[in-house]
Amino acid sequence: MRDFSTYRPGGRFERWIDGRLPVIRFAHDTAVSYPVPRNLNYFWTFGGILTLMLASQIMTGVFLAMHYVPHAALAFDSVERIMRDVNYGWLIRYLHANGASMFFMAVYIHIFRGLYYGSYKAPREIIWVLGITNLLIMMAAAFLGYVLPWGQMSFWGATVITNLFSAIPVVGDTIVSYLWGGYSVGNPTLNRFFSQHYLLPFMLVGTVTLHIWALHHVGQNNPTGIEITDFKKDTVPFTPYATIKDTFAIVSFMAFFSYWVFYMPNYLGHADNYIPANPAVTPAHIVPEWYFLPFYAILRAIPDKLGGVIAMGMAILLVAFLPWLDTSKVRSMRYRPVARPLLWMFAATFIGLGYLGSMPAEGGYVIAARIFTALYFGYFVALPVIGLLERPLPLPLAITEPVLARRLVNGRPSLPLDDSVGETINRKVS
């Protein structure tokens, strides 16, 4: 990216600060004058939504930590006390619990946007890898947080998931003992999970900062998937253009979030988690939170314990390697007639795995989970081959060309065209 700084210190004090610690310049260049492609759609607003949700989760989590008691005999009652006795404790807890679901919903949409528009391709490989790193930290923090209420599903979920590490040769049992802090899931486990759950969101702030930094260094992708050639014609300042769009999207998302908090706050939780943990009673059907269900289905689809753990891990790691697995030179799926339906099939497979993960591991559900698991991994096998054989559609010469061409076809050209773009559009239309 070129040096796009347009900040000019307005006074003597600002000039003094700018010469020693240019924080005002940094803020201006990041949130005001930063050039963004003028053809971005609302899928690009989920980055701002995720930043807001991370801040919300940290603030509500800090408040809950002030009242939560990480003790096996007191944890469940402390959560109930937050709900009943702490001023607005019910609201803070519902914001935090449902916020995790909203966080994952937004991140899955954010990832799908990256898959559809090829945002993982060069020169944005590091951005993509950092994004998947953020997802892994989120998943770890969410799992640890799910254990803290110390209900039935919390206790048995922790038991099942931590036992998976025992499948690792040589060091598996040592890892499990470290996680438990003893010979079974108990009070030491809860203490360790609470401390790690409190720490991980602050680690996430660091990796998200690197993610945004890398994004601002190489620039944003856009729906056409082609690079910016003319900053004057192809970009607009972040403020007010992207800021207004992000604000509208955030307000709309918060309205959706508020509906769950105020009208269906417990809908996404499991009924067994409102029962105190009882090591002597195993729930009939142990399931994680909905955002883990696709990977849980893959885990259960493999009959071998170690094989299931490897498959579940590879299901996430393969996504991180997409910049090198996708061999096509074209970024956006708009211009890839074969890869586009394959991606939609992959998305449907992921949703199907989520449904199968919520069902009992028996009968036809197991067979279907194995078929869907094969389809899931088949996407990563087929993508490199398709990239070599596929004949993409012609790419536009400028990122604004598709929009301007559509307006010209409709008989309502509303933006001035220079000679080169105008000739290109006229040629396309004719």
Describe this structure in words.
- A ubiquinone binds at residue 216.
- This is Cytochrome b.
- Component of the ubiquinol-cytochrome c reductase complex (complex III or cytochrome b-c1 complex), which is a respiratory chain that generates an electrochemical potential coupled to ATP synthesis.
- With 430 residues, this protein is mainly α.
- It contains 18 helices and 2 strands.
- A two-stranded antiparallel ribbon has the order 1-2.
Summarize the structure in short:
The chain is mostly helical and 430 residues long. It is built from 18 helices and two strands. It is globular, with a radius of gyration of 25 Å.
Q: How many domain modules?
A: 3
Task: Estimate the mean pLDDT confidence.
Answer: 92
The largest sheet has its strands arranged as 1-2
CATH architecture of the largest domain: Up-down Bundle
Cofactor: heme b; heme
Function: Component of the ubiquinol-cytochrome c reductase complex (complex III or cytochrome b-c1 complex), which is a respiratory chain that generates an electrochemical potential coupled to ATP synthesis.
GO molecular function: metal ion binding; oxidoreductase activity; quinol-cytochrome-c reductase activity
Binding site for heme b b566: 110, 211
